[in-house]
Amino acid sequence: MANKNNAKAKDIALRLDYEFYNHKGKWLDREAVTFYRKQMQDIYDDGQNNGKFRALREEMQKEYGLTEIETTNLLRGFHTGDYLLKYDRIKNMTPYREELESVDGDINLIMEEMSKLTRADRIAYRKKRMKG
């Protein structure tokens, strides 16, 4: 049982490590969303993806390392809490509840496995992510 939990914990640790180190840009927070939403309201033109909207979306996307759909949704006020939670989890390397339950709630086991990750582990995980 312990070996099975260790393997699960290592998989979780690899995912957390991958997401954290793959993030590009600043960390998203409520103040940033509010700032960009205010700018969006200033240029709002019947919800069309006009030049000003596109430029604002691209600026936010690049600055915070977001996807196009995430940025579009944030600027339009959709799913803000979900995206803030997502990037807070990545920033703080927080596992999902289901992942914790899969290792019997032992966060220390995940952190222990994270401290053991080698460069080879990280490279193999990245290759696996790129394939599938």
How would you summarize this macromolecular structure in one to three sentences?
This protein is mostly helical and 132 residues long. It has 8 helices and no strands.
Low-confidence stretches: none
- In whole angstroms, the N-to-C terminal distance is 28 Å
Q: What is the H/E string?
A: HHHHHHHH
Q: Radius of gyration, rounded?
A: 18 Å
Question: How many helical stretches?
Answer: 8
Summary tags:
single chain; 132 residues; mainly alpha; 76% helix; elongated
Q: Overview of this structure, please?
A:
The chain has 132 residues and is mainly alpha-helical. It has one domain (2-131). It has helices spanning 2-22, 30-43, 51-64, 68-76, 80-92, 97-102, 107-116, 119-131. Helix 1 packs across helix 8 (119-131), helix 2 (30-43) packs antiparallel against helix 3 (51-64) and helix 3 (51-64) packs across helix 4. It is elongated. It starts with a helix and ends with a helix. The model has no long low-confidence stretch (mean pLDDT 90).
